Amino acid sequence: MRKNAIVITSLLLTGSLLLSACANNSNNESSSANNAAAGSNSTNVEATTAPEIVPAGALSEPFTATDLSKLPAVAQKRTDTIIVGLTDPSGAFTPYFQQSGYDGNVSSLLYASLVTVDDKGVPTPELAESWDVSDDQLTYTFHLRKDLKFSDGSPLTADDVAFTWTIQYDKSYDGSSQLPSLNVKGGKAYKEGTSPTVEGIKVIDPQTISATLEQPNATALVQLGSNVLSKAYYGKDYKIGNLEYIKKLHEKPLGDGPYKLEKFIPGQEVRFVANENYFKGKPKTEHFIYKTTEGDVWQFVETGEVDYASFSATDENIEKLKALGFVNIIPYTPSTYGYLQVNLKHEQLKDKLVRQAIVYGLDRQSIYVDAAQGAGSIANIPASPISWSYTEEGINPYKYDPEKAKQLLDEAGWTVGAGGIREKDGKPLSIHYLGSKSKNTDIFIAVAKENFEALGIEFQPEVFADFNSLVSKVEGGDYDLVSFSTSMLTDPSDGFMQFFDGEITDYDNPKFLELYNKALATTDIEARKAVYKELYQLFNDELPIIFTSYKKTVYAYNGRIENLSVSPFIGLAGSLPTWSLK
Fold first, then answer.
1. % residues pLDDT > 70 (the chain)
2. Tell me: the pLDDT tens digits for 167-207?
3. What CATH number is given for 69-84+258-333+554-581 in this structure?
4. Superfamily of chain region 338-551
5. Where are the domains of the chain?
6. Neighbours of 225 (CB within 10 A)
7. Backbone region of residue 502 per phi and psi (left: phi > 0; alpha: psi in -120 to 50; beta: other values)
8. What is the pLDDT of residues 507-521, one digit of tens each?
């Protein structure tokens, strides 16, 4: 299982994959960097549908550092290095084969994409200087820039793109890329071993390649336009049916992005050096470091140990940041949503009435809004308020209503037994909850314990200080609810990825699949909006996951950094190569 959920503790574009780490979804008091794993909108998404960055708390516009002389000496002395905090990655730095979004944040510096998206979510050229889409929306032809190189100086051509696409149709591929779901013509035959190639992939010349799909897919442009792997390096030992060898290359990546991996020291840092062969030119800052040491992010910012961090947009946080004097502050609402993953294998949670009762009986306003000093809002659908597909029409807000929750549990056959705990068929109604260690998890547990006790539900929380331990527990299936937040969502289809990447496997609803595929089958944005409204209403009723919150965030960064900008869809990825220290 590949986890694609994350709190706002990672940073950059990971191509079109929704690769991200899992952690507690509550609004962190502070976190090291903001996740921006992204897909993209369809080829005809118009600028008029672009979301606006929503004011965060008391900050409605960017704030500029007032006194750089207050910058700690350790930060003043850095002349060619920028440091950003990141939760410790696993070391799997090969796109399409990563274990978490934290790995993806590393590879986002090492690899470029054929296509990226601008700050309005519209696809824009990167390694591909242009592309053509056939009238029937089935064939995508990419025209690569000339003289592209990998970081070792070797040429990047259409053969590398073909290799990258092809191995994702290999029967041994078990990564979380959504490209196989595009159904490139001949992909199934290749996977089944009845064809030595993927028929729909055509290398036309060294700078031109096309892919033909079995049916239209609104996400095809950016799915096909993701990161490119070197065939000479990653394909050297490739044999059909065996991709295991690639794991040996994870910690020695060969990319084409703005930086090269210099050194990975688990639990301490990931060091990068500028790539002189980057197609946009060598980045202005020679060295970049992800600081992976655990600690108080506030302290790291105050002491100058890190140059960038994100914080919940509480009035208190904003005033404290302003008082530092040496940081610039940007208000930001990420295109993510928080949710409780539900273990649908467990009998008590298979019943929709029980899931609805949990939502009615959980005081989400107190947990995600009031406790966050307003730096959040309640989520009820799998889309962010800044998405062009967002709607509240026909959506149940599930306002806190313990009596309604009790009524639903009664209807579901759970009656109050000895000790006040509800029972059914001799079994108590119990919820085993998993979360990551944080102040906000503490808040969730305190409120949920009181709420569930009032409903007659036994509540058993378990908290993990280590991310990988949490993942192992989830993968083992020993849980009822676990707190997560999505990575950045660009296309509305991204909001459903956990149902397709192996994370959630027990929601079997033909109507969901019908609507999901219908929304992807057209690039007409108004038609897609109508379908997504139906999908959101379905999920709002069925609750295969329990929606919790949207975050309001502020970025604070060293006032010496110039050219830093933030996209609602790719975060800082687009501007990072141009960062410089004045």
1. 90
2. 999 999 998 888 998 999 999 999 999 999 999 999 999 99
3. 3.40.190.10
4. Dipeptide-binding Protein; Domain 3 (3.10.105.10)
5. 69-84+258-333+554-581, 111-245, 338-551
6. 26
7. left
8. 999 999 999 999 999
